[in-house]
Amino acid sequence: MAPSNVLRCCQRVVGWIPVIFITLVACWSYYAYVVELCIFTIQSIGEKVIYLVVFHLSFVMFVWSYWKTIFTPPTNPSKEFRLIKADKEQYDREERPEAQQEILRRAAKDLPIYTRTANGAIRYCDRCQVIKPDRCHHCSACDMCVLKMDHHCPWVNNCVGFSNYKYFMLFLAYSLLYCLFIAATVLQYFIKFWTGDLPDTHAKFHVLFLFFVAAMFFISLLSLFSYHCWLVSKNRSTIEAFRAPVFRNGPDKNGFSLGFTKNLKQVYGDQGKYWLLPIFTSLGDGCSYPTRLVSQDPEQPNSINHTEPAKNSADGQSLPPRPLSESQNRLLGGTDQHWIDEESDEESSKVSNQNAAISIDQESTKPST
To answer: Which PANTHER family match (predicted)?
Structure first.
């Protein structure tokens, strides 16, 4: 056990190296921009004030979101997803996978779980000894199951998941704005130093290097931020983008997609005034998620309102609603569809027979001429 603990401690120490590097770069950029550029290089007082105000706003939001992404711990599955003592002992005694799956199915029958493994089994983590909720995965770096795990990011030395995904998105956004603002405002002085219009001072190195660093980070962050914006619009994690979640009737990459607007609200919350602030506003508890299997999205095409049953025009009787969408029809399976169609056909035939009987009675009561 001693070598294992030493290795774990070394991994934790090494994991902070990227964070320290980003912190040092941010501190140096602050000194280079505020002191070397604004104080020693720029002569206009008005330009200094505007640059310093905008710079500090972007710097504060960048540091705040980065701090929250780093130090917000990943969220684990709640205790209801753990096996009770009797089931756990029985699970450990069993050697047959079929018997173990039967125990897991019995334990998960009342849990809000809709996804399965690739072969249709209940998702269970032997390491954490917990039934995995939907979108939950085990992180080998953190050595724990993380709710709605997206990926383990070395630049924040933390697992990005349900508890801090909004902070991570804001960190990328404010990093982009920070780098873009620095590159745009430093560009003219970069050209002046490069062409010799400004005298060679100790600020020249800082200004030249500041532009290169800001431009390099902006280009690298732009692709990453664009990719995660696409993931948010589809309500997918990085893991789900590479491996579609498997439902009872097979994989469906759009199983958790609720439409563009609702997908944004899943991450940023339903109050727009808090979207740009690194405070937790994501919807849900991280253990259960609305899916197209159990909920209908009005933004989805070719759909029918699930809350309002269809009305029969003849006698006002309520009929069972038709399938909601093609994706839902496939997820729900053919058995439920068959039942709905038979039920609707039976009701329609009853109505037709009643109408026919009424017509016959009316004909029989007419006076003969």
So the answer is: PALMITOYLTRANSFERASE ZDHHC16
